[in-house]
Amino acid sequence: MSGYLDDSIGHVSASARPRRSDAQLNRERILQAARELVREPGELKLNAVAKACGIGQGTLYRHFPTREDLLIEVYRQEVDELVAAASRLLADHPPLDALAAWFDRVAAYARIKRDVFAAVEAATWQNLAAHSLGPIGGAVDLLLTAGRAAGSIRPDAEVRDVIVLISWLSRLADAELDARGSRLLSILVDGLRAQP
């Protein structure tokens, strides 16, 4: 998965190069701070990210030369984690339960997606959306296929249907997502459930 955004926006992913352990730790701290700060009102400031993780601005700029580079990586990491969660959940749960748990993870992804897309240029978020659709669609397909094979998910459920329905989560404000997100996803799971 690493580097799937590189060609579309002309950046060489920092994750493609091997890192020293202290550099890797700094990178992880930067990304964690950025993930938390991107949800704050207003524009994500790089100096605030550096301060939040206790590093110098030079260290931050070595990893992420621009604010947009940092936001792209926050989003890419979120997509990677969401996609990887599908197979992990299927390993530990029956398919319908795995799908429901994955939808809980989708709600967290929707917040990051909304906040990152609001903070980057339109051309960038269009590229991000286009390149994340394939991996996320693959995760949905994995979950639906397992559920159909187990007889717990209706045979006519299609990946695109689920993608369209879950994409609305990123359009909800935090308060509405908190109030309605779980119920909406529960309704979606019930709608995907195979009828006896």
Give me a quick take on this structure.
The chain is mainly alpha-helical and 196 residues long. It is 73% helix and 0% strand. The chain starts with 5 loop residues before the first helix and ends with a helix.
Rg calc: 18 Å
Span of the ends, CA to CA: 38 Å
Within the CATH hierarchy, at the fold level, what is the topology of the largest domain? Tetracycline Repressor, domain 2
Q: pLDDT average, as an integer?
A: 86
Number of helices: 9
Topology, number of strands: 0
Classification by helices and strands = mainly alpha
The CATH fourth-level homologous superfamily of the largest domain? Tetracycline Repressor, domain 2
SSE series = HHHHHHHHH
The major β-sheet equals:
none
Tally of distinct domains: 2
- What proportion strand? under 5%
Taken from the alpha-carbon principal axes, the silhouette is elongated
CATH architecture of the largest domain: Orthogonal Bundle
DNA-binding region: 45-64
Pfam families: TetR_C_43, TetR_N
InterPro entries: Homeodomain-like_sf (IPR009057), HTH-type_TetR-like_transc_reg (IPR050109), HTH_TetR (IPR001647), Tet_transcr_reg_TetR-rel_C_sf (IPR036271), TetR_SbtR-like_C (IPR049445)
Keywords: DNA-binding, Transcription, Transcription regulation
